Amino acid sequence: MTPVSSPLFRCPVFDGAADPTVIHRRGTNEWWMFYTARRATLVTGGVDWITGTRIGIAVSEDGGASWSYRGVVEGLDPDGSPALNTHWAPEVVWHAGQYHMFLTWAAGAAATWEEQVERGLVHFVSDDLQHWVRAGTVDAGSENVIDAAFALVGDGKQRLWFKDELDGATTWSAVSEDMIHWQLEGLVIPKPPHEGPNVFRLGGWYWMVVDEWRGQAVYRSPDGLEWTRQEANNGLILDAPGSGIDDATYGRHADIVTQGDYAYIFYFTHPEWQDTEMANGLEDPEQAVREQRTSIQAALLHVEGDTLICTRDREAPVSLDPALL
Fold it and tell me: To bridge 73 with a disulfide, which of 55, 100, 174, 314 should be the other Cys (CB 3.0-4.6 Å)?
C-alpha cells in the first residue's frame, strides 16, 4: 500500500526543498516548515544549485497533513554582503520566550566547493516566525561549521551541536549562558563522516540522529552528554527504501518533532539521484534537473527498550498536536 501524503512537500519554485525543520507557531493552528531552497532547476555543471540558496517557508493548517508554500525568509544577510549568499539548514526553536534561528551562512554563491571555504552559524530571534533580527554569530572554534542543532539535555545547559567540516565532518558542541556568547566544548560524535545532527528526547532517552548519506545514524544517551551508537541495523534508520512516491532512496538531513510517546521525523530525498557527479549536468541538463530535485517526507519514530524504531511507510496522514510537544 502506498503511504499517504508522500511526498509531504515539494518546493514550487526551484523544486529543491532540503534540510527541513518544523515548528508550531504559538497561539495558532499553524505549523511552519523552514527549509534550504536548493535551486534544483539550475544547470551550470557546478555546485551553485546548492549554494546561493534562500530559506523557504511552507505552512500547514491541518496538523502537518498538507503544506502550502509561503515564500522565503527575508533579512538574513548583513549589510554590505554580496547580492546572493548561501543560507543552509535552519534550526528553528522556541526558547526563553522567543523563536530562535541558527542559520548556516556563507558569502556568495560559489560554483565549486574550493571557492567557499568559510561557513559559520548566525543566530536570529523572532516573536512571530516572520520577522527575524540578527542576534549574533556563534564562535564555534572553526572557520567552516554548518548544520546547528539546539536542545536542553540532562545538565540543563543551552547547547548547540554542529558539523565541523575541517575536522572530517564530525559533530562538536558549544554551550552558552546567555544565548549570545558560546563556549566550545569539543568533539561529540567522531567519524564516520556525517552532518546534520538533531537532538531530542523520547522514550526515556536522549537521541541524536546524524546524516551519513546512506541513512540516518542513531546515537543514544541517558543524559544527552555521552553518546552510544545504536546497535540495531548498524545504527541506521531511513536507509532502506520506502514505498511512497519519491521515497525509494535513503532519507537525508532530518528534523524530529516529538508527540508524547512517539515522534515524526521529517527528512528529504533525492528521488532520482544515482549518486553521480553533478558536474556531468552540462552533458545532460534534463538528467541533472531530475537528479537535483528533492522531496520532503515524514516517517514515525518510537522507542522499544533502548532502540529507536522508524516506521517509514505511514498509513495515516501526519497529525501534529501542540499539546503533545
Answer: 55
